[in-house]
Structure formats: structure tokens, C-alpha cells
TrEMBL record:
<keyword id="KW-0346">Stress response</keyword>
<comment type="function">
    <text>Removes the phosphate from trehalose 6-phosphate to produce free trehalose. Trehalose accumulation in plant may improve abiotic stress tolerance.</text>
</comment>
<dbReference type="Pfam" id="PF02358">
    <property type="entry name" value="Trehalose_PPase"/>
</dbReference>
<dbReference type="InterPro" id="IPR006379">
    <property type="entry name" value="HAD-SF_hydro_IIB"/>
</dbReference>
<dbReference type="GO" id="GO:0005992">
    <property type="term" value="P:trehalose biosynthetic process"/>
</dbReference>
<keyword id="KW-0378">Hydrolase</keyword>
<comment type="similarity">
    <text>Belongs to the trehalose phosphatase family.</text>
</comment>
<comment type="pathway">
    <text>Glycan biosynthesis; trehalose biosynthesis.</text>
</comment>
<dbReference type="GO" id="GO:0004805">
    <property type="term" value="F:trehalose-phosphatase activity"/>
</dbReference>
<dbReference type="InterPro" id="IPR023214">
    <property type="entry name" value="HAD_sf"/>
</dbReference>
<dbReference type="InterPro" id="IPR003337">
    <property type="entry name" value="Trehalose_PPase"/>
</dbReference>
<dbReference type="InterPro" id="IPR036412">
    <property type="entry name" value="HAD-like_sf"/>
</dbReference>
<dbReference type="InterPro" id="IPR044651">
    <property type="entry name" value="OTSB-like"/>
</dbReference>
<protein>
    <recommendedName>
        <fullName>Trehalose 6-phosphate phosphatase</fullName>
        <ecNumber>3.1.3.12</ecNumber>
    </recommendedName>
</protein>
Amino acid sequence: MAQTTVVVPEVGMTAATPTACPCPGSLFPYPPPRAGMAVSRKCLRAAQAELGAGMLSGLVESMRASSPTHARAAAALAAGVDDEHAAWMARHPSALGKFEEIVAASKGKQIVMFLDYDGTLSPIVDDPDAAFMSETMRMAVRSVAKHFPTAIVSGRCRDKVFEFVKLAELYYAGSHGMDIKGPAKSSKSKAKGVLFQPASEFLPMIEEVHQRLIEETKHVAGAKVENNKFCVSVHFRCVDEKHHDVQSWGALAETVKGVMREYPKLRMSQGRMVFEVRPTIKWDKGKALEFLLESLGFADCPNVLPVYIGDDRTDEDAFKVLRRRGQGVGILVSKHPKDTSASFSLQEPAEVMEFLLRLVEWKQLSRARLRLRRQADA
Ligand SMILES: O=P(O)(O)OC[C@H]1O[C@H](O[C@H]2O[C@H](CO)[C@@H](O)[C@H](O)[C@H]2O)[C@H](O)[C@@H](O)[C@@H]1O
């Protein structure tokens, strides 16, 4: 059977490729983690000096670009980039506007929902510990999960994202997909009881780098280090951006990079006003999506339509997997044009909720229609 992919025509698609998922519980053959060396402040300063000025300014530029809420994005809009925005919207149309097209593509297929948390289900706020989702959003996610297998895929520690979402019937992939657990509820689920932690051997190293980053960034007012179990976030949303101040973004970037040099088995990426530190293993949100599809019995299956909604750079790995498989719907949550492999867009969590509720309504109506048809045929 032909595989269906919902894409906007301008963006090319490759043919679907088979999934390659590891067995649940198996560990990757990674070399044993090397404990981070304790390095003196002098060594750290030397490492920092090694960072060329150009490289550092590049990093600060990328920090600036890391959140569409940043003043620059607003200034760019004010400067009249309407054309650029319109062109971007043409390439990534609203998933609400294309709703009928999306559900039509699910004909004969099982929709599986993948939802990022921060910026997708909850609005972005200054304090990561206060990123609560609304009760109405929770109800919408609960309703969606009644009709479709639903997973939360987050950079956060799994327990923490569960504390925010509070729905036991969902699948959770925390730490950027490195901590996957099937639903505690729902005995019907094929993936019930699944637990997959491909980076478990990195736990001591992550704990160590977490402590080091707290220590090294404590002089930077507003910096916040968050332990996400298999990865660490260093937030700079509340750090003053001044260039010549020790408490600037540049100084923070230098400090984090300096610490990272001590841990070659870890890598750093950037999210929305945050540095993400994680193991160098080949595992990300895209791999988590494939793993969950396989656990649900949809490996190499043409009769599935994964729908992934996310707002962050780390969600791009999942959008790319959908493109590579030639299967599924990637939806980027953003008000501003961004480089993305997603096919569609939604502006903000409120639109995500609307999309979820429309899916539920559509599913209920389709079921009611089917019942009526069967009654009429009987
Ligand atoms: O994959 P996600 O669920 O989107 O998690 C990515 C990171 O989200 C959180 O940080 C972001 O949201 C915060 C609260 O709105 C905001 O203050 C911060 O600037 C954002 O980067 C979370 O705190 C991180 O640990 C996650 O990695």
C-alpha cells in the first residue's frame, strides 16, 4: 500500500525508509563514559581564551536568535518582513487551515500523536519551574489520548514533565527522548510497561557536569542550571545580554563551552534561550518517535500517520524522521519564520489546543457517521 505523507508541495520528500529501532531495554555499544576531570579555574580560563573572538560572537548571535520572543524578532517584524513571513507561511501553512487535508491523509490509518511540552502545550515563561499547562489544555490532551495513542516528547526530565502534564494514560519520552516509558494506565496498550533509557551509563557524568555548571555559572545573575536526568539545561532567558559585562551572554557561553571541553562524551546544542548539554549518543527526539512507533507495533507499517507538534530546534530531529520515512505530519509551533523540516505551522499553544480539539471532534463525528451507516445497512 502506498504511504501517505502530508507535505506542502514546494518541499521535496524522499521515499519512505524502513524504521530501524533497537530492542526495548537494549543498551547501545557506546564506550564507557569517561569521568570528567576536575579542572582548575586557570585551565578553564586558558580553555576560554582558546575560543576565538569570532567563534564566541557567533555563539552569542545564535543565542540571540534562539527565541522568537527576543526583541530582535520583534524589531525584524516591525521593520516590515511581511513578505518573508507570507512566503514562509506558504511553505508551512497553518495546520488549522489545512485541517481537512491532514485528516483526509489519515484515511485508513492510525493517527499517533507526538507532543512536545514547553512552547507547545505550555506557554514559554521566564521560570522553567512555573511552565504550567492550563486545565483546558490538559483536557484537550486527555481527549486526544482517548482516540489516538499519544506521547509527550520533551527535553525535560520525564518525572518533571509528568508532574506538569499529569496524565497517566500517555507515553512519555523525557530527556530529549532518552528516557521513554509506556503508560501506567491503559492495559490495552502494546507498549505498556516499556522503559527505554539508552543513555543510562551517562548518569554519573550528567550529575557531575550538572554540579560543575552550577558552580561555574553561579556568578552569572539570572543563569539557571536544570538537571533533566540524562541531560542538563543552562538557561539564559533571564541573563542580561550586555556585551562587556562579566554577567553577559558571551561570558556565560564561554563558561559553558569551557566546562564542555572537559567532557568530550557530552555535546551542547541550543534551544529557546537555553543551552542543552547531553550525551553524544546517536539518540534524539526523532529516534524516540521511531522507537515509540515500533513499540506500538507500527514499524514499517504504512497504515499509521504520526503527527508531531513541537516548537524547538530539538523537535527538528523528529520532523526530519517524518520526512525521511515519507510518512506523517510535522507541525512547527512558531509565530515567526524559522528554518524547519516541519510541513505545517501553528502560532502558539492556544492554536495547538484548537487543533487537538478539532481532531477529537472530527474523530467523534467519523465514529458517529460510521455507526449510523452500519445501522442503516443492518
Ligand atoms: O522539549 P521541550 O518540552 O520543549 O523542553 C525544552 C526545554 O524546555 C524548557 O525550557 C524552555 O521553557 C522554559 C519555560 O517556558 C523557558 O523558561 C526556557 O527559556 C525555554 O528554553 C525546560 O526548562 C528545559 O529544561 C527543556 O530542555
